[in-house]
Amino acid sequence: MAKAKTTAYFCQSCGYESSKWMGQCPACREWNTFVEEPVAPSKSAGKMQKRNANEPVKLSSIEMNTEDRVQTGIHELDRVLGGGIVAGSLILVGGDPGIGKSTLLLQVCQNLSTQNRKVLYISGEESLRQIKIRAERIGSFTNDLMLLCETNLEVIEEAINRMKPEIVIIDSIQTMYREDVSSAPGSVSQVRESTSTFMQIAKGMNISIFLVGHVTKEGVVAGPRVLEHMVDTVLYFEGDRHAAYRILRGVKNRFGSTNEIGVFEMREKGLAEVANPSEFMLNGKPEGASGSVVACSMEGTRPILIEIQALVCHSNFGIPRRTAAGTDFNRVNLLMAVLEKRVGLQLSACDAYVNLAGGIKMNEPAVDLGIVMAIVSSFKNQPVDDKTIVFGEVGLSGEVRAVNMAEQRVLEARKLGFETVVLPKVSLDSLPKIGGISLKGVKTVRDAIGIIG
Q1: Exposed/middle/buried for 195, CB within 10 Å: 0-12, 13-18, 19+?
Q2: Which residues pair with 353 in a beta bridge?
Q3: pLDDT in tens, 216-233
Q4: Which residues does the annotation place in the binding site?
Q5: Which residues are annotated as a binding site for ATP?
């Protein structure tokens, strides 16, 4: 009888399984990602027969009920989740080390415990004393919050079955392991088995589970790519560790929009919500400085005003230097080429530095016109009016194209005290009458430069 295979090769990027090592993964096309790991033992046929088979049902016979979402008490998190936590959902929260993932989830536990909801916080990285120290910094907790320091999945599953909580926090998924899988915790096999176990618990017992995931140096969740496919919602916690603000971004959500963001500020007692991100981002904006323009970007249904800074100066070398922080570097080069070809600005011999103030990252096409105006303002050393904002997509022919949700952008600008909005002419024609602010529509980049001066 042939000997049973005990090892296999798994792709660390997508989890593809192969019987032999390969240089390139045929599934995700990544190179040198295969590692050898023990194969998890298959379950016996007797155990498989004990499962009750589900019978197919008619689509018309399925009853639809309004989703009963649990409010976390943190409005910014509820916004990203689509209105709250859906019962039985599996949520993955990823982010850089020290960014505030555990702090945010501990604050969620604090708010949920005050609503008399049973919450179980399972930590595989910190001791009970370490969690207690952070909890005392955040505030007071009720007795509905239970803590467990464990990494063995069998023990965790027994604890969940015994306690039957409504919300479970797993910190982190890379530390969990199953004894019948002989590979090390954090490996492809262990992460996949652990996620599968928590998914069965969430769906079978109608428990909402948060999974904390480590990220790689590329900024993606460590482990197999299948991890993000198995969960219902994927949230990324972004931001510079040395900056005050944090951004929670939803990249996958089966129960809501995937474009929403939540903005937080790191303080001594934890994370505080930023109710008005536009005002927060514009703090410290210089007055009367050339190369500084306020633009408007949409993140889901939320308009955010950001300051775009540009510095253009003549280069002392044969090859000019171009730098972009917070936006796409290739997009900046493209817009500078449009200015040189369509407007006639001699930028080929100039160094150009473009920065989105505050360290925020925006790639929406609507900020194109703001980048163009900032570059022109710095090149001519002519400041743009501090009470003016601009937005619009710029095409290769120098035309200013329409953007979506123009009315929300204008209303946000009026709320913050801006007096003039430069926007695409096509978007202006479709807007209802809005009082209290001047709207100027432009068709081309040249028209926008003429309006600003």
Answers
A1: buried
A2: 311, 323
A3: 666 666 666 678 888 999
A4: 95-102
A5: 95-102
